[in-house]
Amino acid sequence: MKKLLKNDVFQFLSLSVVITLFVYGLNAGKGAIVARTVYNTFIEVLDIVVAVSIFIGLFQVWVKPPTIVKWLGKGSGLKGFILVCTFPILMGGSLFTVFPLLKTLREKGARQGAIASFITAWGGKAPLLPLETKFLGWPFALVRLGFVILFAFVMGLLMDWVGEKAT
Amino acid sequence: MRAGQIYLIIAIVLFGISFLKDKQRSKEALKATFKIFYVVLPVLIFVFVLMGLIEAYVSRETIVSILGQKSGILGILYAEIVGCIALFMPPAVFPFGGYLLKNGASYGSIAGFVFTAILIGITTLPLEFKLLGKRFTIFRNIFTFLLAFFIALLMEVILR
């Protein structure tokens, strides 16, 4: 029971139900609006979320962290820098999964700028393009993707510019 | 055909290719897929509830006045701050952003929100501190916030 209460999945689901019921109790009309929004959006995204989960699952087993570390090396030199600003766009996951990978890259000697570029480029989130284009449209998604590369590039330069001090 | 169905077909075809190349790995991929789905779905539902709450209690005018085109620079800043503290997983960022867009938020605000929601997280700060160091964390988050602001501004000019 204690384990169940600590489970994120359980927490989010029960919180969702409790909030909806609470609103419904206060005002049935508003509660119905909440329920309808949840239902409609859910139906709209279900197939996309399944597809995206498959993309990310496949990527995870075919491109494992050691492979990524090997490919990116130290992220130094122009080629490494360009790679570090673009390749992570293809990756899924949340910050929780990215930081540990970056720690490994760091230990292999990657510069601070390369690490920061990596995180920023990872924010490009190409696996989520189906979701992004559905809700924000292709123009937004493509312009954002273009800027992500620039963003990652400038980020790396800035982080190298402030330099590393003994931490 | 819905876009979602096309993606689903592409995903299944890719999985088929993967399965032909390496069964063991594909089984792992399937496991990973289930796990991602299992973790992401409840968060999505929670965010949909938030969207429902806004739908029920916040008027379109309010969203327009805070995040709309007229709110300009301030709108982008507000959106960025919401992105920083929102506990969203990346997949939940886009439906929520799309919802705000549909209800009158500007492209710039949405861009600011999307960037900080993905790249800055109050909940992940302790982990970043621990794994990548304090100095790195502080500078990275400040620069991310500032650069996201300028890019959001540019995107507003380009897309409006």
Label this structure with key terms.
heterodimer, A: 167 residues, mainly alpha, 9 helices, 80% helix, B: 160 residues, 2 domains
Question: How does this model look, in words?
Answer:
The complex is a heterodimer of chains A (167) and B (160). Chain A is mainly alpha-helical and 167 residues long. Chain A folds into two domains: 1-46, no CATH class; 63-167, no CATH class. Chain A contains nine helices and no strands. Chain A has helices at 2-6, 8-26, 28-62, 65-72, 77-86, 95-107, 112-122, 129-136, 138-162. The longest helix of chain A has 35 residues, at 28-62. Chain A is elongated and about 60 Å long. In chain B, helix 2 packs parallel to helix 5 and helix 6 runs antiparallel to helix 8 (134-159). Chain B folds into two domains: 1-57; 60-160, no CATH class. Chain B has 160 residues and is an all-alpha fold. Chains A and B meet through helix 2, helix 3, helix 6, helix 7 and helix 8 of A and helix 1, helix 2, helix 5, helix 6 and helix 7 of B.
Which two protein chains have the largest interface (Cβ within 8 Å of the partner's Cβ), and how many residues from each?
A-B, 78 and 77 residues
Profile the largest sheet of chain B.
none
- Give the number of DSSP strands of chain B: 0
Percent of residues in β-strands of chain A: under 5%
Distance between the termini of chain A: 41 Å
**What is the assembly state of the chains in this entry?**
heterodimer
Overall structural domain count of chain B: 2
Gyration radius of chain B, in Å = 19 Å
Radius of gyration of chain A: 20 Å
The overall pLDDT of chain A, averaged over residues, is: 88
Distance between the termini of chain B: 29 Å
Nearest-integer average pLDDT of chain B: 92
Counting helices, strands and paired strands, the structural category of chain A is: mainly alpha
Number of domains of chain A: 2
Q: Total helix count of chain A?
A: 9
Q: Give the helices and strands of chain A as they follow along the chain.
A: HHHHHHHHH
